[in-house]
Amino acid sequence: MDLPVMPPLKPMLAKSVRKIPPGMQYEAKWDGFRAIVHRDGSELVIGSRTGKPLTRYFPELVTSLMDALPPRCVVDGEIVIVHQDRLDFERLTERIHPADSRVRMLAERDPASFVAFDLLAIDEESLLETPLVERRARLATALDTAGPQIHLAPATQDQELARQWFETYEGAGLDGIVAKPLDLPYRPDARLMFKIKHERTADTVVAGYRFHKSGPIVGSLLLGLYDDTGALQHVGVCAAFPMARRAELVEELEPLLMDSPDEHPWSAWAQESAHEGARLPGAQSRWTGRKDLSWVALRPERVLEVAYDHMEGDRFRHTAQFRRWRPDRTPVGCTYAQLEEPVRYDLAEVLSWRNE
Predict the structure, then answer these.
(1) Are 304 and 327 in contact (CB under 8 A)?
(2) What is the CATH number of the domain that holds 210?
(3) Does 29 qualify as catalytic in the annotation?
(4) Given a cut of 50, is residue 341 above it in pLDDT?
(5) pLDDT, tens digit, 9 for 90 and up, residues 23-64
(6) Which of 88, 223, 268, 281 places its Cα 20 to 30 Å from the Cα of 144?
(7) What predicted TM-score, i.e. pTM, was given to this entire model?
(8) Which residues form the ATP-dependent DNA ligase family profile domain (predicted)?
(9) Structural domain of 245
């Protein structure tokens, strides 16, 4: 491979802001795997956010990208999987599997798509120093005849339309808006763009914690919600605390330590079969490997209000943020019913969007 921009290449990143800033290009924030595609004739590499190749995990995309992309180019985008008219991140994570036979079975069952939003090189020309607005125009031209699995990301300079996208696109599984300065060159691994994500709050039950990797202080609080059957389901963690606060939490939560964890709602977490019928903490996966996932069981009596952006199935998609203890609330009221359900939106409408 001999391109003006060579792999591995880390993508340009975004920093979080609360409001959509004016005077920029606005795009949907896709909930998938960030990927930079390098194509040089018959050679094609799909690189991850860390620079490691993802090519073997998405064989169906290799074929589609070879058909859709110019013979020599570098394109930044997102790999997504669509299921029941929504983005499905859990099905995407299933692809990271060591067995080629399983990867190909999943590729046939749930084919992935690639959403392109930046052009970094074409033919013999590097576009890293080219302003974003020009890169976008050239990307639209390059993907003018893209196939059904390769999409041009919707983009607009209309701030009011971006606000509408922020409200409606979430119903299709997208999780916010990315704002990009129009004259922005491409800077790998630099946070020069802006992301605006939804933030909601929920009252959750604190039912345990894991120790921090540095020692016997709290690493993360384990959060639960009660389902319709009255079972406490593990929905995520709250983990961002100053080091001093982590030590304080150990003392603060000590009165809730259980004499015997056998009576805890999640006491069966160490049994692999138990994870098939309930969401429990500590399940081993290809992401955690041999990582120690043991945890300290607490009586599920304290209520914590957390902020979250959106749900992935029956759990928080990302780490929740500590807001405040709620001594005025009872754990029995911490149910899924309190969570806001976004109005569904047809993902096909998003993926079929083209520039006017």
Answers:
(1) no
(2) 2.40.50.140
(3) yes
(4) yes
(5) 999 999 998 999 999 999 999 999 998 889 999 999 999 999
(6) 88
(7) 0.75
(8) 114-227
(9) 200-338
